[in-house]
Amino acid sequence: MSEHIGVLNIGGVLLVALPSDLNETAVASLQEELSAQIVEKGAHGVLDDITGVQVVDTFVGGGLSVIASVARLLGAHPVLVGIRPGVAQTLVQLGVELNDFPRTRDLDAGLLALGIRST
Question: In Å, how far are 34, 37, 52, 77, 89 from 55, measured between CA atoms?
């Protein structure tokens, strides 16, 4: 897996499609890249799309929580979108808390959570 995760800026909202084989290295890379992009682009929102993620562990789950906290501290509103049933069950079983990370089922709902209407 490439350690670089692309971040797309759409009208001040950063869209990040996380890879299916998300791991510790990718989460660390994402934390750095996303922090830089929030500041550089002046983003007010971040959509972290985990639709393609098949498996998570406690480190990855905790890393997602850290990403949300960092985004908030930098002035962006993070939204986690596309949690698959198996991933949701694993996060609950592992006791991973994502309380500071609003969650929606898909990108359209994520945009609505940021106050953006999609067509």
Answer: 21, 26, 9, 25, 10
